[in-house]
Amino acid sequence: MRDDLLTARDVTFRYGERDVLVGVDLRVGEGKVAVLLGPNGAGKSTLLKIFSGLQRPRSGEVAVLGRPPSSYGRREMARILSVVGQDPPLDFPMSVEEYVMLGRFPHHGFFGQATALDRREVDRAMAMTSLHELRTRGLGELSAGERQRTAVARAIAQGARVMLLDEPTAFLDIYHRVAFYEVVTRLSESCGVTALIASHDLVLCAEYGEQIILIAGGKVRAVGRPGEVLTSSNIRDAFGVDAVCDRNPVTGSVRVTPVRKGREGKP
Amino acid sequence: MKRMALVFPLLAAAFAGAVVLSLLAGPVPVSLGQALRALAGGDAGGPAGETAARVVLTLRLPRALLGALVGGALSSSGVAFQALLRNPLADPYILGVSGGAAVGAMTARLLLPGDSFLPLPLCAFFGAALAASAVFLLARRRSGVSRERLILMGVIVGAFLNALIMMMVALAPPGRIPGAVYWLMGDLSLGTPGRVGLLAPYVAAGVAFLFLLSRGMDLLLLGDEAAFQSGLPVERVKTAVYLTASLLAGSVVAVSGLIGFVGLIVPHGARSIVGSGHRRLLPAAFLLGGTFLIAADVLARTAGPSGELPVGAVTALSGAPFFLYLLRRNGGKP
After folding, report:
1. Is the CB of B230 less than 8 angstroms away from the CB of A102?
2. I need a labelling partner for A134 at 20 to 30 A (CA). Which of A73, A261, B213, B308 fits?
3. Residue B243 belongs to what domain range?
4. What is the ipTM of this complex?
């Protein structure tokens, strides 16, 4: 087990005059489900883009499996690292199965035919995300939850060891959020996939996250297990919100409940 | 999947049917038997057969083949532009090719002596290539080429070229311009065996190269960021698709003039038959585009009360209602 699948050292980034990241240090180990928490504009998406090679840091170093993203060929990189955005385009003109097959591009390339292995991986990805029934449907006919699952399935079919997920559950109800985190947990436990998830979901990240990275103002404020990071003072510090952090009586995980202003001490 | 297995034989049969129809249609009567004998190179059987064979081999077959090449190339180029710009209204002419070709053709008519027709295609091709390159270079930034900037620059360069065309029309000595104007309306009568032979390798190379890029075009539909993260060298693929599709359109425009609508609607028709995967879409669009243009040309040759109608008018007249039909059938989405 390597402890340096994703590393960032003293990374800074700015859009124009605005500092987005100011000296971020980060390390995500193999097979971990890591959650990147932080307020809007904290730089979570930017950090994911830097890891996937879409953006270059202004200074500092990032590495995927010990090498900077720019040192990989495009397809080589995509075989190691896949990315899930919020959902596929609404009017994407393909069937679920064709769309998931696009995830095999880094393996068969421009000219190769889809092999039996490619088809097997696509089947496996659709099975993990319960998409088999929908395989011939057009993407435009799916619900938000189903579209989100196809995006995850495409990333699974890509067969990468590292998955970056940018607010993947933003538009989903609680049922689909739980289902999403179950799939990611299964990927990490049975396939050794490392996941870095940018999220606003304080409840489910406490339940499913193994490592929480709290960033605010372009800096890492706290790193560790959910119980260590999700404290009242950290949450006030990062989000400016008062919250009670106690234990879930069933699972024992930390439970974050915001406190309505002026309601402290009232029944 | 069973349906797919039938699609390509049917498209090929429709294509062959259109070619045969175009061999038979025209003022000189040719029977099916005479046409087939002429194609097979067999004995013509008498002077009437010989005339028929000559008409088929020197006039109608080259013209049908030119229609196939032009229709197929414009449709393939349209497929590529629609994928590149992720815009259903894109066609081969959207980014400067048409204006550039027109300025090139008019320059040839105005500056070159006499009625020599050969330099016109060359000038049209260079005009198209120059305009397309200018649009691309203007839209390019350090971070790459964005769709929005490409469309914006296409509009700006197109407007500039249109102004040039108006200036040329206004300032030209009388009698020089009409030839070029008629040429701009689109015309397949230049289909001599020599020209078809000259154009065929360009079209074959361009379409084959686009076909090799078909997986890349599939991924471009995801948007640039997602395509990049899926392992596609996005900027290189966009450049290759753009240049190939532009040069393909430019080379057929040089021979046939500006035949509109084929490159816009045939991709949509082909997509409604085989879906959006470009490995099937490109060959289907090529066959369908060839069939459509040959059929439109037959109509243009035979429907006019005196002489030929411009084939570009026929494609637009028949294409616009078909486009409306597609729009309605797909619930407003082309």
Report:
1. yes
2. B213
3. 67-329
4. 0.91
- CATH number, domain with residue B85: 1.10.3470.10
Average pLDDT, 10 consecutive residues per value, chain B (334 residues): 79 96 87 86 76 88 94 96 89 86 82 64 87 92 86 92 87 72 76 84 94 94 92 94 91 86 92 91 97 94 80 86 77 53
Identify whether the C-beta of residue B60 lies closer than 8 Å to the C-beta of residue B259. no
Note the helical H segments in chain B. Answer: 2-24, 32-40, 47-54, 61-85, 97-111, 119-139, 147-171, 178-184, 193-212, 214-220, 224-229, 234-256, 262-274, 278-303, 311-329
Beta-carbon contacts of B176 under 8 Å, excluding residues fewer than 6 positions away, are B109, B110
The three-point CA angle B193-B26-B188 to 5° equals 40
- Put simply, the answer to whether B221 touches A89 (Cβ < 8 Å) is yes
Assess if residue B125 is contained within a domain.
yes
Question: What token pair was written down for B34?
Answer: 């005479």
**Cross-chain Cβ contact B212/A110 below 8 Å:** yes
Tokens matching residue A265:
């001490």
Strands A6-15 and A59-64: antiparallel
For residue B146, CA distances in Å to A187, B137, B141, B223, B263 come to 35, 12, 8, 10, 22
Strands A194-199 and A33-37: parallel
Q: Is B216 on the interface with A (CB under 8 A)?
A: yes
Which pLDDT belongs to residue B270? Answer: 94
Helix axes B278-303, B61-85, angle to 10 degrees: 140
Q: Under an 8 A CB cutoff, do A106 and B219 touch?
A: no
- Nearest chain A Cα distance for residue B149, angstroms: 20
pTM: 0.89
Q: How far is CA A153 from CA A122, B194, B334, in A?
A: 8, 53, 27
The whole-number pLDDT of residue B119 equals 72
- Which residue, chain included where needed, has tokens 């929480």? A212
Summarised one tens digit per residue, pLDDT across range A124-136 is 999 999 998 999 9
Asked if residue B38 belongs to a domain, the reply is no
Does A229 score more than 70 pLDDT? yes
Distance CA(B323)–CA(A173), nearest Å, equals: 39
Q: Is residue B303 part of a domain?
A: yes
Q: How many helices (H) and strands (E) does chain A have?
A: 10, 11
Number of domains forming the structure of chain B: 1
In chain B, the residue whose alpha carbon lies closest to the alpha carbon of A51 is B229
Is B294 inside any structural domain? yes
